[in-house]
Amino acid sequence: MLSVTEALEEVSRHAFRLPTQECLAIEAMGMALAEDVISPVESPAFDKAMMDGFALIAADTDHGNVNLEIVEEITAGNTASEAIESGQAARIMTGAPLPPGADSVIMVEDTQIDSENVDRVQILQQVKRGSHVLKKGELLSKGQVVIPAGSIIRPVEVGILSDFTGAKALVHRRPTVAIISTGDELVGPNIEPGPGQIRNTNGPMLEAMAIEAGAVVKQLGIVRDNRDELSAAIAEGLEADVLLISGGMSVGVKDLGPSLLAEQGVEKIFHKVKLKPGKPLWFGKQGGTDNPTLVFGLPGNPASSLVCFHLFVRTALNELVGRSNVSPFVSGFLLTRDFVNPGNRPVFFPAFASRKEGGGATIAPLNWKGSADLATLAQANALACFEENSQYEAGQFVSAVMV
Ligand SMILES: Nc1nc2c(c(=O)[nH]1)N[C@H]1C(S)=C(S)[C@@H](COP(=O)(O)OP(=O)(O)OC[C@H]3O[C@@H](n4cnc5c(N)ncnc54)[C@H](O)[C@@H]3O)O[C@H]1N2
Ligand code: MOO
């Protein structure tokens, strides 16, 4: 049986980048840039005033208090009509280009104008050369990489892309994810479960997780444990980039998943991973490098499906869109209580992580009742990672997967 690390490596190895497409930056939020964003110009494009005040020549103020002639007023979006010379100043607003000749700006608060003589300004202090001026090219030079490929598009990137690429972004297209929920016992959200029946929680939950991860979802609904029905659904699901099949992955008499996938030419890469919950995870691939489909058979138990999604499906989706090197693990959580994992599999245990006063973070394992317990996961924001056959003491550091 593979370890979690080995299984994650296999998933990454088989997930190829999807083709790229150009789209509006705002619609690419959360996606990864597929190319470097390069500044085509210097920024700022001109020496820029950073305060409302007066543009002047700093050397004129070397002896402190000085009275200068105001030659014009420059507002943002306009340029000076003439250069200033020694003894002169231009009224200037934040964001406006400095007039030629000027090298500094003094804030209006540090000046005085005599109401009898409004064409002159009294400079009340010595001005340091370059004060309140953002020099041309100081932020970015022409050809500089502003955002490297692989960066996630967040609001700040949307702002920068609006500056340099016409608000467009080149990204790997969103993955399509098809979802099948198998099981004779399953009913939809508005149907009263009969004896032995349960509601399909995995289907909608997996859909929500896939959307959150940036995918476009095709929900194929509940499929009975019947060879023909499941075969047809699998064939449809294999048109997507990723197919998720919930349930039927273990060794029960109706666990048809693995054999039907093999019949449809899906190559098994691994079946079973050493973790709890989620051991029966199945992973395979159909097709070569050209438009392959990655197939995950997720264990039917809801918590097992959720944990496998966060660890393995998310890793695949990240690889497909170029969000590389995003580890599911965050380290350095201080355990709030003793914890024993007597089992022979590492456990990913629902827990609540919070900020610690004075820095750092703590993690409190919840009172989780096992793979069928989704309700406790609703109180969790993390899965604390505990090694197999292990004992932990309060105050020890553990890593976690954020959920
Ligand atoms: N003899 C063995 N039995 C089991 C093993 C094993 O190694 N040997 N593994 C156990 C583990 S661990 C898990 S996890 C489950 C997973 O089994 P399956 O993937 O085959 O899932 P099912 O049997 O179809 O369902 C398990 C459980 O989950 C409920 N379920 C299924 N689908 C949904 C859904 N869409 N929404 C909500 N709940 C769902 C289902 O009713 C079952 O209660 O196998 C163990 N058995
Ligand atoms: O691995 Mo199963 O997912 O323990 O319940």
UniProtKB/TrEMBL annotation:
SUPFAM superfamilies named among the record's database cross-references: MoeA C-terminal domain-like, MoeA N-terminal region -like, Molybdenum cofactor biosynthesis proteins
Judged by the first EC level, this protein's enzyme class is transferase
What region holds the MoaB/Mog domain?
A: 178-319
Which terms in the Gene Ontology molecular function aspect does this entry carry? metal ion binding; molybdopterin molybdotransferase activity
Provide the alphabetized UniProt keywords.
Magnesium, Metal-binding, Molybdenum, Molybdenum cofactor biosynthesis, Transferase
Q: Which cofactor does it need?
A: Mg(2+)
Catalytic activity annotation: adenylyl-molybdopterin + molybdate = Mo-molybdopterin + AMP + H(+)
Per its record, how is this protein called by name? Molybdopterin molybdenumtransferase
Gene symbol?
A: moeA
